[in-house]
Amino acid sequence: MKKKYLVFFLLSALICFLANFFKHNPLLVIFLNTLLFLGYANLFKEEFNFKSGLTYLPFLALMPIFTFNHQSLVIYFVEFLVLISWYLFTKIKKKSFIIGLVSLVIFLYFTLLSSHIILWPFKFDNLERLIYPQEPFQVDILRQQKEALYFPYQLRLVVFSNLTSYTYDFFNHLLTFTSLENLYRTLTFVNIVLLVLGLASLNKLKPSLKFLVLSSLFIALIPMGLIKTPDTLTQFSPLRGIFLLLIINGFKAEKLSWPIFLSLFILSVFLNLGFNLW
Amino acid sequence: MVKKIIIILISLATIFIRFYHLGSVPPHLGNDEISIAYDAYSIGQTLRDEHNHFLPISFASHGTYKAPLYIYFSVLPIKFFGNTEFAARFISAIAGILTIILLGFLTYKISGNQALSLLSSAILAFSPWHIYTSRIALESNLAFFFFLSGIYLFLFAKEKERPWFFLLGSSLSFSLSIYSYHTEWLLSPLFIFFLPFFFKLKTKFAQAFYWFITVLLCLPIFSDYLNNLGTTARANTEMIWKHPYVYHFLQNSSHTIIEKFSILLATFFSNYSGNINPGFLFFNGLNLLPQKTPYQFGLLLAISLPFLVIGLWSAKKFFGQYFQFLIFFTAIGPFVASLTNGGPNLVRNLPTLAPYSILIAAGLISIWGKVKTYQKYLIIFAHLLCLFYFLAFYFVHYPVYSAEGWQYGYKQVALLIKPLYPKYDKIIIDPRFGKGNVYAGVPHLYLPYFTNLDPKILLSRGGTDALIFGKYKIKNLDWEIEKNIEKNTLYVLPEDNPPPKDLKMFHLLYTVNLPSGQPEFRIYETISP
């Protein structure tokens, strides 16, 4: 069994390496991305322990998200810290609450750093990228407080307030960003289907992994709603480990027959080609 | 008893929302609406459209070649109510109300659950998407009704040993949807083809009969399409292979078939993704206000989002054998809209509103039994608040913000000109409007419609550098080259193209303002200097 793992892991590493190479990433980034891919795959290796589980691992190495370049060694460093904290959280049973909390904090920091909301180490210089504040909004909020006479004045101050307006705008940005196309550009089409199946089978994961998935998704979604014009791979990159886990969980659910899977895979290839031609 | 009261209240609210200020919200007939209204008026008087075609199957309009049914249906309301916005929108409002009732019956047919069917009707009735589309003269809204009735009647046919009546009804309904709007040219045949596979008819002959009758009923419009390729003008320009970049890519012989297929597939996928984007559906799809404001609205109430997700999750237990069809409907709904350019589109994607309403209702019913009483009240309150908020913006702010986009001003100009028509020799109109005169209107339709001008006058129009009919002359006025300023003439000018100050002949009669108070048009008379 260990030999089988080794073979598939090495094969996947090679594929990840080549995918990064053909994307013209610098050598160091190729190496780091490959190492991260192996790190996440190894972290969740028990999830591959089912019939034909490992056969899909090399395909996962082709996901665009594993060829993403953070453009900063510091961010890579923090991502490795996240990976290590997740290892500790899933392997050490004692004091798992504290380790879990620490890993959450590290992941939050990593998310804010990779989204460029903060700069290393704690500089908040990029706040103009956020949805708050926006001058046109302030003008409209004040206008509605004056003009919306169908609400009593006190209620107007609540309904047309910064809190409600920006909360709405946050969800507007978040949901507009988490589109099928953006997920496609991150994962490819067949993996989106597997991701959805993996989310549907979330309860089949161990409690520690389930906690990682839910907390990471929650934290990583926040910048997507906060940033005015988020970049697809940048925003989804903190979740690459989680996506890997969910996709393999979806694969494990075995709800896709091989013909459908292969059809989706071929479709993904054509779509990938099509998007590259645009 | 309580249920009956709730049904009556919902019904009254539905009718009220669709008819309240139907003529003034939206604030003016838009480009497509006036084309429909005028053609209906012209057909009612002369049996000819504005381009002098006798009882056409396709209406040339502004080169958009509209499907005919809405226009023909509007002839009677316009004769009865007069040349008003209300008359033009009447058919859409009625079709909207009938669709709500029909969806209830359809949901009951596929679920057997009375509460679910009532709730799905209510969701549809109070969705911003359906309220918006039911209150404008929209062919898509009429097509939606016939499309749903085609499905509904088919579901009866599948149970019968002698299904001919229901098959004929379904076939006729789908055909009428094809005569109503272009989206259904592709969507209805898809459903006509796939429905017998989801729900097998008792005999293969019945299936063949169904397809045969539908083809027969659609022959006139499709043969018109083939004989007059100009009718595809709208379809041609709107399809994804006509996108400038895609078009040139496809024309380029250096690209392989696989590359050409891939780029079309990617474009389609991108459009499909846009049409089902949750942000578009729940937060920003309905452009009531300018994009930069924080007050955007989705096509569905934002509060419905979690219930749609729950509904998708729990649909199987409600719909049994119909579950797969419902998922097919949800997935295929945006298909045709995704084949067109211009981004996510609430008009072309309208049929998808039906399965969304059903699934949201399923989500609500699913959760209803599991929540505490105070949570139920909270859910109801949240829905009512979202609905009230939308209605307040729609009826109060939207007419003010959006007036220019609806070409506001032309009706007002027409009503001002009407009593003056006999007094002047000519009425010259510059059709542009907006800041910097960026927009081009269609005053040649608004003016005859709102002044009840004899359609025969427009039918005999002429002119080379201007459109001339009756006393009207419509042309872009460039004051640098406009030398012959005629006396005893009315000039209708956009705000950003006033007559030069040195021309003393112009005397301002009226200013037509937008609801915001901003001037849009000015009417001048020319007098002796």
Which helices and strands, and how do they pair?
The complex is a heterodimer of chains A (about 280) and B (about 525).
Chain A (H helix, E strand, L loop, with lengths): L1 H21 L4 H17 L13 H4 L12 H19 L4 H19 L20 H13 L5 H7 L2 H16 L2 H8 L1 H12 L6 H20 L5 H5 L3 H13 L5 H20 L1
Chain B lengths: L1 H18 L11 H16 L22 H13 L3 H27 L2 H12 L2 H7 L4 H19 L6 H17 L2 H16 L5 H24 L5 H6 L5 H8 L5 H19 L2 H7 L20 H15 L3 H10 L20 H16 L4 H30 L7 H8 L8 E4 L2 E2 L5 E2 L2 H8 L4 H5 L7 E3 L2 E3 L14 E6 L11 E8 L5 E8 L3
Helix pairs in contact in B: 1-4, 2-3, 2-4, 2-20, 3-4, 4-5, 4-6, 4-7, 5-17, 7-8, 7-9, 8-9, 8-10, 15-17, 19-20
The fraction of residues assigned to DSSP E strands of chain B is: 5-15%
Overall body shape of chain B: globular
Radius of gyration of chain A: 21 Å
Low-confidence stretches of chain B: none
The largest chain-to-chain contact, stated as pair and per-chain residue counts, equals: A-B, 35 and 35 residues
The first-to-last residue Cα distance of chain B is: 76 Å
The amount of beta strand of chain A, in percent, is under 5%
* Strands of chain A, count: 0
Largest sheet of chain B: 6 strands, mixed
SSE series of chain A: HHHHHHHHHHHHHH
Number of helices, where a helix is a run of at least 4 consecutive DSSP H or I residues of chain B: 21
Helix/strand structural class of chain B: alpha/beta
Radius of gyration of chain B: 25 Å
Short description:
Chain A is mainly alpha-helical and 278 residues long.
Features:
heterodimer, A: 278 residues, mainly alpha, 14 helices, 70% helix, 0% strand, B: 529 residues, alpha/beta, 2 domains, 6-stranded mixed beta sheet, two-stranded antiparallel ribbon, 7% strand
What does this 3D model show about the protein?
The complex is a heterodimer of chains A (278) and B (529). Chain A is mostly helical and 278 residues long. Chain A has one domain (71-274). Chain A is built from 14 helices and no strands. Chain A has helices spanning 2-22, 27-43, 57-60, 73-91, 96-114, 135-147, 153-159, 162-177, 180-187, 189-200, 207-226, 232-236, 240-252, 258-277. The N and C termini of chain A lie far apart (44 Å). The mean pLDDT of chain A is 87. By secondary structure, chain B is an alpha/beta fold. Chain B has 21 helices and eight strands. In chain B, helix 5 (114-125) crosses helix 17, helix 7 (139-157) runs parallel beside helix 9 (183-198) and helix 15 crosses helix 17 (353-368). The termini of chain B are far apart.
